[in-house]
């Protein structure tokens, strides 16, 4: 079922990125929130696996749109001085949401059944409606739209060309798009591989009981939340590039420490340190990526590059599963570490800080 979710989010990210540039960031967020809420809630009425899979895929189209549209919108609202701090804090919502649903599912499912978990997802519908009336489009996007209308900059949509071909034909934008596609692929390959298999590693290969393992993972996720905020603040002070490289390569180098140097006495501390490093890349990625493209193509480029990377997310669990069957989960985690290292190496060598200011019409 996770593969259906990733498929929906990947397609949604591509569509949402293009739609952000064409119709506006806020409009996409509103429509994506409404569609996700309705379809996710309706999933609770599914009567077969096939129905549930279809509804899950369709609902995740909206979720994929939201990730791209929200990051693009916030990057254009917030000044450069505070941008990474704000977007990194926004990223803690993903971790917080995972923790909240984990905790309330233990209460809801025994009392009301699994369907109730999906029925309550209708709640964000109200936020989508409110946003339509309360949140204006960012000024930089409105200025770019006007410049396209008056012919001051080229309107690729008016030419009816493929927006991704147009981006790739531009030497600068095309280079950034390819570099970020590879970096995102390695990031998502490592992130989803670790998040899917680390609990199994703690339980199976380290002999940790399920209840203790859950506590370790909760501690790791809480540490990730603090790490994201701290990393965002530091990145605004010293640069996105260096902090992103520190987080990705630090995660890569610390995975072998967890695999080879753990024992019953130090595993708790090791997991907290790992959680801190593991949380940094996602905190910086949104700002670093959105600042790599001008306003006119930002949504399309960010949505395309990031969601090409979702291919890595699909293959990561499969890769570790294969290595676990023919070796150990620990070996698979080391492969994830290599992916993290490559994810950080590409931007460190080739992608500069603050190439574009999202608050400017470029």
Notes on the protein architecture:
- It comes from Acinetobacter variabilis.
- The chain is mainly alpha-helical.
- The chain contains 15 helices and no strands.
What's the quick description here?
The protein is an all-alpha fold and 362 residues long.
SSE arrangement, N to C: HHHHHHHHHHHHHHH
Instruction: Look up the CATH topology.
Output: Growth Hormone, Chain: A
Shape: globular
Uncertain spans = none
Major β-sheet profile: none
CATH homologous superfamily grouping? MFS general substrate transporter like domains
Distance between the termini: 40 Å
What's the number of helices?
Answer: 15
Q: What is the SS-derived class?
A: mainly alpha
Summed over residues and divided by their number, the pLDDT gives a mean of: 88
Notable characteristics:
single chain, 362 residues, mainly alpha, Growth Hormone, Chain: A, 15 helices, membrane, Major facilitator superfamily (MFS) profile domain-containing protein, carboxylic acid transmembrane transporter activity, transmembrane, Sugar_transporter_CS
Set out the fold topology.
Elements: H1 2-23, H2 25-42, H3 49-77, H4 83-112, H5 115-119, H6 124-134, H7 139-149, H8 163-169, H9 171-205, H10 210-238, H11 240-261, H12 267-290, H13 298-308, H14 310-326, H15 329-350
Pfam families: MFS_1
Membrane topology: Multi-pass membrane protein
Protein name: Major facilitator superfamily (MFS) profile domain-containing protein
């Amino acid at each position: 079922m996770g593969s259906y979710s990733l498929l929906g989010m990947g397609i949604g990210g591509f569509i949402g990125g293009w739609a952000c540039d064409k119709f506006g960031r806020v409009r996409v967020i509103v429509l994506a929130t409404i569609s996700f809420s309705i379809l996710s809630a309706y999933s609770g009425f599914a009567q077969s696996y096939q129905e549930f899979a279809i509804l899950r895929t369709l609902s995740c189209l909206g979720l994929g749109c939201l990730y791209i549209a929200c990051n693009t919108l916030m990057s254009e609202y917030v000044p450069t001085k505070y941008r990474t701090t704000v977007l990194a804090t926004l990223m803690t919502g993903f971790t917080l949401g995972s923790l909240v649903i984990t905790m309330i599912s233990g209460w809801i499912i025994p009392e009301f059944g699994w369907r109730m978990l999906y029925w309550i997802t209708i709640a964000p519908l109200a936020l989508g409606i409110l946003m339509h009336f309360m949140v204006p489009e960012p000024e930089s996007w409105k200025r770019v739209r006007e410049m396209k209308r008056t012919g001051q900059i080229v309107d690729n949509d008016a030419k009816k060309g493929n927006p991704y071909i147009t981006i790739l034909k531009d030497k600068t934008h095309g280079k950034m798009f390819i570099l970020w596609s590879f970096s995102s692929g390695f990031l998502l390959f490592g992130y989803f591989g670790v998040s899917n298999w680390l609990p199994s590693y703690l339980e199976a290969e380290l002999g940790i009981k399920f209840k203790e393992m859950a506590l370790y993972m909760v501690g790791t996720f809480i540490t990730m939340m603090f790490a994201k905020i701290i990393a965002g603040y530091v990145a605004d002070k010293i640069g996105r590039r260096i902090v992103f490289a520190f987080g990705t390569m630090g995660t890569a180098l610390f995975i072998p420490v967890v695999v080879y140097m753990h024992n019953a006495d130090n595993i708790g501390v090791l997991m907290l340190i790992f959680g801190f490093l593991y949380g940094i890349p996602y905190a910086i990625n949104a700002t670093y990526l959105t600042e790599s493209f001008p306003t006119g193509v930002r949504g399309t480029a960010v949505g395309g590059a990031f969601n090409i990377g979702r291919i890595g997310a699909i293959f990561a669990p499969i890769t570790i599963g294969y290595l676990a069957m023919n070796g150990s989960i620990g070996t698979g985690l080391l492969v994830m570490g290599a992916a993290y290292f490559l994810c950080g190496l590409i931007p460190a060598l080739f992608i500069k800080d603050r190439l574009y200011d999202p608050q400017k019409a470029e």
